[in-house]
C-alpha cells in the first residue's frame, strides 16, 4: 500500500500531526503509521550557497572581487542540519511513498523552506498543501480533509525566493564592501539599514532640538475653567510680558459663552490583533521586546494550542469562521473572563464588518483564541499576560461601541478666546472588558513636544451652560512648561514606523531589531532604543538610497505584486543586481573615515594593537581587531569594597537588567547594589542607626498626640 509523506516545519508540529493522523511508530527523524509518514525540517535545511561555493577565491574577503552577482543562484544543504535533510531525502525516495503533503507554516517563509527541500531532494511529482491557522486536533483533521494543490502557492514561493535572493545580493555585497573598505565588522542590509536610518534620524532631531520655556493661561469661572488659545490654535505663550498683559487685561472682566457645541461620539471596539499590533501592545504594557512576544506567542500557538496562527498581517476574520465564534468564546469564559464572556453567550453575537471581512484577510486571519479551553494555571507569567491581551481583545469585539456626550465651549473675554471641554460617559460599551487597564494608544512615533500643543482643552465636568450667558472671571491661572524634544523610539513606536513604510513583514520585524542590537549598532536603555557610536558612523558610510525606507518600501511592494501574480521575478531581480553593483561602487569611492567607537586603552600582548571592547551575555571582553591575531580576553575587573561573606575576597561589580550588582565568581554569591553603588544596609545596621539618632519628641497638639499623652499620664499615676 502506498503511503503519504508529510513534511512539517519543526519536530513539535510534526509530533502533533502524527498523533492526530495515527502515525505512532517512532524512528530517527520521522514518525510512521499505516497511511502517513510524518517528518520535519529544523527551520531551513537548504539555503542559498555562499560565495566560496561558486569560487574558492571568494573565501577571503576582498574589495576588488565585489560585487558578487551569480547569474543563477545555487542551493546548498546547511551543514548544521544535514543529518535531518538526509532523512527527508531518503523518505522522498522510498518506493512505498507515493504522495507528499507540505505542512510547513502556512506563510511565505514556510513555503520557501519546503520548496528548497523538494528541489534539492529531487521530488518530481506533484504535492498537496496543508494550510491551517491553528494547531488543534480539529483544525488538523479539517485541514487534511481540505488539502490544496501545491501549484496554488507557486506565486507565493516566487515572492519568497525573490526576497531571499535580494537579501543575499544586497546584504552580502554591501556588508563585505564596508568591512573590507573600513577594516571593521560592519553589516548592512535591505531592511536593517533603513531601520537604523530612522533611529538615527530621530537621534539627530533630538540633538539639534533647542528647548524653550513657555506659559499657559487659564481663567477660573467658578464652576469650571477655560484655557486661552491664540489665533493659530496654540495655547502656549513664549513671552512672560505677554502673559502679564493678558492677566491685567482679564482682571475683573466678564466672560461670555460665544459658542456651545453638543455632540454624541461613538468609539467602536479596537480591531482584532495582528502580530505587529500585539507586539506593540505587549511592549507598551509589559515592556516585552518584539522578539520575546513572538517567542511567547509561538508557545501559546504550538505548545498550548490556545491561539491561532501568530505571524499574520490581518486584523479581520474570514466569513467561514463565523459559526466557530461562540465555541471560541465559550473556551475563553473561565476565570476573570467568565463574567465578561457569559452575557454574550446568552444571545446571538453581533458580528459586524469590523470583525469579519474576507476582502481584508490575506494568507491568515487575525490572532484570536482557539476552541481549546484555557487552563490559566498551566501558563507562565509571560504567557498569561500575552493570552490576557488576546482574550480581552477577542471578547471586546462583540461588545457595543463606547458612547460619550461631548460639550465644547468657546468663550470670549476682553477680546480673547478661551476653550473648555466636557465629556460624559453614556455607555462604557467594550471598555468594560478592560476596566481600568485600557489606555488610548499614543502615536509615539509622531509625538514631538517641540510643536505639540499642551492639552489645553483638558476634559472636565461642566455645569449646565447656555449660549450668550456671562460669568465673572474670578482669577487667572498661569502654568509654566518647557518644550521637549521628540521621544526616542520604543520598540512599539519603531514597529509602527516599520509597518508604515513597509519595512519587513510581521514575521521578520522582531528579528531585524534583534540583529541591530546584536551587531552593536543600537542598544536598549530602559524601553528606548539608542544608536551606538558604531551605528552613528555606519549610517554615514552607506549610500543615502539605502538609509531611507522609500527604496526598500518599493521593493516590498513589488514582492507583494509578485505574490499576487501581478509582477514577474526576473525584472525585479535584475533591478536588485543593478542596485547592488551601484551600492558597492559607492562604498569603493567613499572618502569617509571610520573610527572604532569601542577602542580600549589596553594593547594586544601579541601584536601591540589597541584592543576593542565588546559586550556579550557574560559581560564585557576585549578582542584584538587584527584578523591575523584574534587574541581575546575578558575586560578588566571592577572590584567593589564589599567582600564575600564566605571567602572574604573582594566581589566584582557587574551590570544586569535590574541595575548594578556585586558577585563573587568563586562562591556564586550575588548581592544587589543601591543606585549610588553602595550595598544595601542590613537590618542590624538599621537598628543601630535608629537607636543612635532616636530623639524623644514632645507631644504635638493634634488629637492623636493628646490621646497618647493622656494614656501616658494615666499609666504614670497608676
UniProtKB/TrEMBL annotation:
UniProt catalytic activity: ATP-independent breakage of single-stranded DNA, followed by passage and rejoining
Residues in Topo IA-type catalytic domain copies: 153-584
UniProt keyword terms in alphabetical order: DNA-binding, Isomerase, Magnesium, Metal-binding, Repeat, Topoisomerase, Zinc, Zinc-finger
Enzyme Commission number, as recorded: 5.6.2.1
Molecular function as annotated in GO: DNA topoisomerase type I (single strand cut, ATP-independent) activity
Annotated family: Belongs to the type IA topoisomerase family.
Protein's recorded name: DNA topoisomerase
Organism: Paenibacillus hunanensis
